[in-house]
Design a protein that fits this description.
- The structure is a homodimer.
- Chain A is of the alpha/beta class.
- Chain A is about 45% helix and about 20% strand.
- Chain A contains 9 helices and 9 strands.
- In chain A, strands 5-6-4-3-7-8-9 form a 7-stranded mixed sheet, sandwiched between helices. Chain A has a two-stranded antiparallel ribbon with strand order 1-2.
- In chain A, a hairpin with a 2-residue loop joins β5 and β6.
- In chain A, α2 (about 35-45) crosses α3 (about 45-55).
- At the A-B interface, α1, α5, β8, β9 and α9 of A face α1, α5, β8, β9 and α9 of B.
- Chain A binds a DNA duplex through α3.
DNA sequence: TAGATTGTTAATCGATTAACAATC
DNA sequence: TAGATTGTTAATCGATTAACAATC
């Protein structure tokens, strides 16, 4: 496991998943080495930026050669925290929750979705793929018994904050939040928002600009 | 309709949907005026930043008073291009496509989802909510006959680029892309990516940092 | 008028790009 | 050794913060 000391800026962190994706693809195609220039062309960045980014966490290539794909990929995977497994629950078994439960990539990277929760008795007791759907009443107990550390929140806006409160109370420290709401959480809980409507509005802006 | 001349930076544009959300909520609660300071507190920004942002497109408040919520909300709505309606198709009627077809907010803002397309004969011919699901073979004709200007892409990675090519060929100029792939499109086509896996990896980074 | 808050300029900070010596 | 490409420093650019005069 590669260790790194320097602080990685959030700007760089936001680019890391993309680096990881490209390096994984290169690795799958058995490409062994890549230069910052080649990678920049592929990703639409500058070579300079890539070298700065990679240096910000100390990953190093070889002068006159480039970067070893496998090595760099593994270094970035470690920095993203993907060198350890995570246990995850999805709250809300609607279409969005179900869509996410099918993401193959999650399981491949050691992110295991253990259960889904819902209040709809028509859904509770069934399974989605191989994932069981339980009633919200059983959330607290399940989280404690299964060492859950990530919660994916796919509930209606009206109950978003309320459920976030419950989640934080049980000790979950990370929320992937699909609710279009800025959740208020204790400062030791990290939240990453996915706001599909915001993305659409950015798109209409770009479209109407032309 | 408010007109604006200065160029708005992408950094600001990415914040506009959030401003719009907060101002809509204030408006719903019949709040008439807001100061940059109050809004900053609510949104977790600085008052200075808010004033700079709003000034970058010429929206103005009143010195000594603040901003009129309704007026500012409408100005931002116009800048986001939401003063005109859009016709939209969703490609891929899996869980993700279906989830998005249920977003009430889209319709409220004049973004009309006219149809969904799929290759699965088990899905074609049915409806999702009130939205019909057609076969991909009928895509070209439907787009032409219904003045579609936005496409929401929810297909498997393997066929993402191929379908993007088809979309661009018919003349659609905007794609909301859920496929974890950097699409190659003509330069007059705008693409906004939503990458759920990338968001999750940002989350695991933040979680493992602690 | 006095108080509040904007619009706007200046100062600071951080991110990107350019350049090049180090070195494989 | 010559060529390539990194790591890293310096220069530039852009975004955020601070400060304050303008003015409602």
């Amino acid at each position: 496991m590669q260790s790194y000391s320097k602080k990685v800026s959030m700007t760089v962190v936001k680019r890391l998943p993309k680096y990881y994706q490209y390096l994984s693809d290169l690795s799958d195609r058995d490409v062994e080495k890549i230069s910052s220039k080649e990678l920049a062309n592929m990703m639409g960045l500058t070579a300079s930026q890539i070298r700065q980014d990679l240096n910000s966490f100390g990953a190093y290539g070889q002068q006159g050669y480039g970067y070893k794909v496998e090595e760099l990929k593994d270094a970035i995977r470690d920095i993203l925290g993907l060198n350890q497994p995570y246990n995850c629950v999805i709250i809300g078994s609607g279409n969005l929750g179900r869509a996410i439960s099918h993401y193959e990539r999650f399981k491949n990277e050691g992110i295991h979705i253990k259960a889904m929760f819902d209040v709809d008795h028509g859904r509770v007791g069934k399974t989605v793929g191989k994932i069981p759907v339980y009633h919200m009443d059983d959330l607290e107990q399940f989280v404690k018994e299964n060492e859950i550390n990530i919660c994916i929140l796919c509930v209606p806006r009206e109950v978003g904050q309320e459920i976030a409160n419950r989640i934080c109370k049980i000790g979950i420290k990370a929320i992937l939040n699909f609710v279009p709401l800025d959740l208020t959480v204790p400062e030791d809980v990290v939240v990453e928002n996915v706001n599909i409507t915001d993305s659409l509005f950015t798109l209409t802006f770009l479209l109407s600009e032309k």
